[in-house]
Amino acid sequence: MHLSQQVFCKRTPKSVNVRFRPHILVLPSLYPTQVWPLDGIYVQDQAQMLFRAKCDVGVLYPEYRSWRTLQCFPPWKNHFQTGIYHESGVKTFRLHGWNIPRFKVGTRVWMRMMMKLFTQYISCFGKPDLCHAHNCLWAGLAAKKIFDTFSIPYIVTEHSTAHLRGILNGWERQDVQEALREASAILVVGDSLKQRLVPYAHDKQIIIVSNVVDTIFFRRPTHRAKTSTFRLLTVAHLVERKGIDLLLRAFSKAFGGQESFSLEICGDGPERRKLERLAQRLKLSSQAKFLGARDREGVRDAMWRANLFVLPSKVETFGVVLVEALASGLPVVATRSGGPENIIIPEVGFLVENGNVNALASTLTLAHQQYGIFNEEALHQHADVYSEAAISAQVLGVYGSVLHVQ
Prior knowledge:
Blueprint: E1 4-5, E2 23-28, H1 41-52, E3 56-65, E4 81-87, E5 90-98, H2 104-125, E6 130-134, H3 136-150, E7 154-158, H4 162-165, H5 170-180, E8 185-188, H6 191-197, E9 206-208, E10 230-235, H7 244-255, E11 261-266, H8 272-281, E12 288-292, H9 296-305, E13 308-311, H10 320-327, E14 332-335, E15 349-352, H11 357-369, H12 376-383, H13 388-402
Parallel strand pairs: 2-3, 2-6, 3-5, 6-7, 7-8, 8-9, 10-11, 10-13, 11-12, 13-14, 14-15
Antiparallel strand pairs: 1-4, 4-5
């Protein structure tokens, strides 16, 4: 991600236009940085979608760097100063600091930093019409505080897997409930997350609005090369909950020792070394290839090379990468982990019992046997349900309802 700094502290008058052009301030709990360019990228995608939909869009993000990045970003470059950037048309205020404790005191410090950014933002651009927070913890809580202080309405989109994993403690559950107390609309990215959020929603309607996927960029290749190797692909941050260990074991059972089958693992993370050792123990060194982290072009190239996409997650609230694979013309296999159930129908792929190695191995074999029945154009059309045009219309519809605009 390339950030170009530009000074914005000059108020822009609102143009008179019959078109609905709200001033939206996006408050993410997680957002891409130079160190972690994929963190919260679904929020950045939506902010840029709103800009292209002719909204006036700003983003506030207290960006904290790990002390492990000290050599790359020495303290004099990160001393809790505010950087103001122009990122693909979106006014973005970043507070550059260092990690804070991830407990209740840390929550309050983070919110204080968000309020500092908000004060700076409105001094430059005036008050927004609406705040759109992504995740109750902690952006939703900050949006509630802004509402209490400035009477600016807010909505919350929940993405967090913490609800599905059941790992919220008592005070975090109270904060979720508080964050939703005055929300004008509550959005979630999937039905399983909707069900988990009901106890906190104060009897308000919860609306499912999926993450946006660039189905124009992720498109079918003009020609998918035919080779003697059947390639399986997964794309994930290599953490425990993504279930890549499950995939390696299932691949070994289904195709181990058969050089006409390969598995490409695209991504990086703290589990990589452990997974590489597991692949060696399973004697998959010549079949399983760890590609490391890839940018979007690299992910798309990997999808264009592949024949089947697999997402073996233990928990997912949505599954953007599944839709990207479908848009690229790939049939998919995924575990019933929360989000994939809303995406996958029999015409585009297979759902398999979560955590069951034997079931996944059998499904991979079946997917290979039935590979020829899938039509790449039909797969792409299914993915278009999550295109920018479709999701933009839904989000703008929510904004119009909250702001009473027809």
